Amino acid sequence: GAVVSQHPSWVICKSGTSVKIECRSLDFQATTMFWYRQFPKQSLMLMATSNEGSKATYEQGVEKDKFLINHASLTLSTLTVTSAHPEDSSFYICSARKRDRETGELFFGEGSRLTVL
Amino acid sequence: AQSVTQPDIHITVSEGASLELRCNYSYGATPYLFWYVQSPGQGLQLLLKYFSGDTLVQGIKGFEAEFKRSQSSFNLRKPSVHWSDAAEYFCAVGAGGATNKLIFGTGTLLAVQP
Prior knowledge:
The complex is a heterodimer of chains A (117) and B (114).
Chain A: E1 4-7, E2 10-13, E3 19-25, E4 30-38, E5 44-51, E6 57-58, E7 67-73, E8 76-81, E9 90-98, E10 107-108, E11 112-116
Parallel strand pairs in A: 2-11
Antiparallel strand pairs in A: 1-3, 3-8, 4-5, 4-9, 5-6, 7-8, 9-10, 9-11
Chain B: E1 3-5, E2 10-14, E3 19-21, E4 24-26, E5 32-38, E6 44-50, E7 56-58, E8 64-68, E9 73-78, E10 87-94, E11 102-104, E12 108-113
């Protein structure tokens, strides 16, 4: 299989605090991971592309200092929402591309729901 | 620029009836096309994908999709819908290559009546 796991699946935090979300590829190595954000009843919006051992590439309009992404190993990428505010409340989903698979196929985590009070 | 359009925001079908979800894309080259399904509060599960070759692709759970270049479409079909198919369906187009970015449509929410 190709399993991608996110942790935590849901988190509630106070405004001004930072929250870290982990994305792990459990049974494969992922050279590239992607972070998406999904607002209620809307589609997924790509936030950034994370490559192992290098800096993430952020999409236009995404604040890199607010959404810190680290891809320290071939099986783990983390997204840290710094100084979170209520408008950051959303469903965050990661996806990963297998190191040895054909172009284009991604495997998605189950998502992490962030609620900022 | 790449884009994906899913014209139907919400569709309701009766259990056992056939289903077709529409997807149109805009892309300059041969696209990589995907259909994903999302249950409430869950991540995305890949139903099927098209990279090249046979334009009619078979997926999991009895779904199929047909790539029509002339219409820039990749519609998803199922001959007989089950109640468990109720979910949100997303069509996506990928550029492939090193970036592997996927651009998603706005999704179609499928409701299944008993």
